[in-house]
Inverse folding.
C-alpha cells in the first residue's frame, strides 16, 4: 500500500475506457436509468459536435484509452453516429455501440460495420415482450431489439446483451438466459440496478427481496455450468446484499472517463450528483490535463481523503472505500465509507432499505423523463 498524496502519476493509472454519453435523449424511459435525474437540463442539450468528439477520441487514445463506449441516452439519435464510429476507428479505439436498438435497422448496422464499429451491445429490459416494454416504458420496442440483435450477429458483430435486474424481473432470469442462448450472444451482462440517479429515486420499487437474490444466484450458477464455454456470462450481485462494496468504476480516476453530451468529463456516470464538484469540459481543456491535473479527477485518488474505517482498512486497496456517489446520496458526505460496507457506522441505512421489501406497500415506478426536474430523496 502506498499513499501518493492523491495524485495519479504511475502508468497503471492511465484510463483504459472512455464512456462517451453522446446524448441524453432517449427512446426508452427506464426507471433505473444511469443518466442524471436532471438529464433534460439545458446545459446537456449543447451536445459536442462531430469534430469535437473525434478530437476527444484521438486525445483519449494518446492518453492510453483502448475501449470506447458509444452510449447515451440512445446514441443512435445522433445523426452523425456513423461518422463517430469512423472517428473511433481512425483514432485506434475498440468501439462498442451501447444501444436500446429501438429501432436499429439492417442498413444502419451495415453502415456502422463499414465505418469500423467493433461491437454491439443491446439492452433488453426483460425476457418477455410485455414486461420488457413495460419496464422500458415504450410499447413495441421488444421485437425491434430482437431483430437488431439477430442482424448484428448475422453481420458478424460480437454481440453483448445487457439486462438490468430488479424486483420486477429477477424471477425471470432463466428466461433472459434462454433468450441470450437463442440469440447466440457472445456475452451477457446481468447487472443488478445501481441505486443512484433514477435508480435511487425508484429504489423502494426496484429493490429485490433476499429470496429473489438467493434464487437468482442458483439460476445463474446452473446457466454458467451449461453455457459458460459458449458465452461470456457476467452477473453483478446487488451491492446492497454484499458484505463489502465494489471498487466503483475500478476506483475514482483510475480506469475510466465518462463524458457527458456537452463535453463535461467525469470520473463516473453519477458524479454530477456530487454538488461541490465542477466538471472540466473538453471544450476548455485537453483530456490529458483533465486526467492528470484537474481537481475533480484527483479528488478521491490515493487514500488521504478517506475517513475511518476506510483509512486504516486492509481492503482500501481493493475497493477504494466503495462508491463516492452512493456514499453522498445515502449519508450526505461523499468522503464517507460507502454504507454498503458492513464496517460502515451507517451500514444500517442499507440494512433498512434491503430488509423485507415484500412487507412494504408496492410503490409505483416513476419513469425517467427529460423534463429537467432534479429529483432527490
Ligand atoms: Fe472498503 Fe472502507 Fe469497508 Fe474497508 S471500511 S471494506 S476500505 S469500504
Ligand atoms: Fe460515482 Fe460510484 S457512481 S463513484
Amino acid at each position: 500500500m502506498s499513499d501518493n498524496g492523491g495524485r495519479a502519476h504511475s502508468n497503471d493509472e492511465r484510463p483504459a475506457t472512455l464512456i462517451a454519453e453522446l446524448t441524453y435523449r432517449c427512446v426508452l424511459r427506464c426507471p433505473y436509468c444511469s443518466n442524471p435525474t436532471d438529464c433534460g437540463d439545458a446545459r446537456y442539450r449543447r451536445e459536442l459536435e462531430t469534430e469535437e468528439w473525434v478530437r476527444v477520441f484521438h486525445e483519449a487514445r494518446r492518453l492510453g484509452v483502448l475501449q470506447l463506449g458509444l452510449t447515451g441516452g440512445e446514441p443512435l439519435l445522433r445523426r452523425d453516429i456513423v461518422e463517430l464510429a469512423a472517428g473511433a476507428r481512425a483514432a485506434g479505439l475498440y468501439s462498442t455501440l451501447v444501444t436500446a436498438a429501438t429501432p436499429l435497422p439492417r442498413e444502419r448496422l451495415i453502415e456502422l460495420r463499414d465505418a469500423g464499429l467493433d461491437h454491439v451491445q443491446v439492452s433488453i429490459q426483460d425476457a418477455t415482450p410485455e414486461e420488457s416494454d413495460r419496464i422500458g416504458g415504450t410499447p413495441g420496442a421488444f421485437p425491434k431489439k430482437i431483430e437488431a440483435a439477430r442482424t448484428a450477429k448475422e453481420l458478424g458483430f460480437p454481440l453483448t446483451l445487457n439486462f438490468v435486474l430488479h424486483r420486477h424481473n429477477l424471477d425471470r432470469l432463466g428466461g433472459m438466459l434462454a433468450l441470450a442462448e437463442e440469440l447466440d450472444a457472445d456475452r451477457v451482462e446481468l447487472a443488478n440496478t445501481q441505486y443512484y440517479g433514477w435508480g435511487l429515486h425508484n429504489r423502494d420499487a426496484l429493490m429485490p427481496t433476499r429470496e429473489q437474490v438467493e434464487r437468482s444466484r442458483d439460476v445463474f450458477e446452473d446457466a454458467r455450468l451449461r453455457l459458460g464455454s459458449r458465452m461470456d456470462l457476467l452477473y453483478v450481485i446487488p451491492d446492497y446484499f454484499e458484505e463489502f462494496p465494489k471498487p466503483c468504476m475500478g476506483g475514482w480516476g483510475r480506469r475510466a472517463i465518462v463524458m457527458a453530451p456537452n463535453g463535461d468529463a467525469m470520473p463516473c456516470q453519477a458524479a454530477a450528483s456530487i454538488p461541490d464538484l465542477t466538471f472540466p469540459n473538453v471544450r476548455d481543456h485537453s483530456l490529458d490535463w483533465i486526467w492528470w491535473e484537474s481537481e475533480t479527477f484527483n479528488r478521491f485518488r490515493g487514500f488521504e481523503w478517506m475517513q475511518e474505517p476506510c483509512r486504516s482498512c486492509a481492503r482500501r486497496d481493493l475497493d477504494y472505500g466503495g462508491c463516492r456517489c452512493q456514499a453522498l446520496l445515502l449519508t450526505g458526505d461523499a468522503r464517507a465509507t460507502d454504507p454498503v460496507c458492513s464496517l460502515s457506522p451507517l451500514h444500517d441505512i442499507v440494512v433498512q432499505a434491503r430488509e423485507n421489501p415484500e412487507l412494504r406497500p408496492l410503490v409505483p415506478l416513476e419513469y425517467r423523463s427529460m423534463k429537467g426536474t432534479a429529483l432527490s430523496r
Residues 28 and 138 are 6 Å apart (CA to CA). The chain is about 35% helix and 10% strand. The longest strand covers residues 159-165. The longest helix spans residues 210-227.
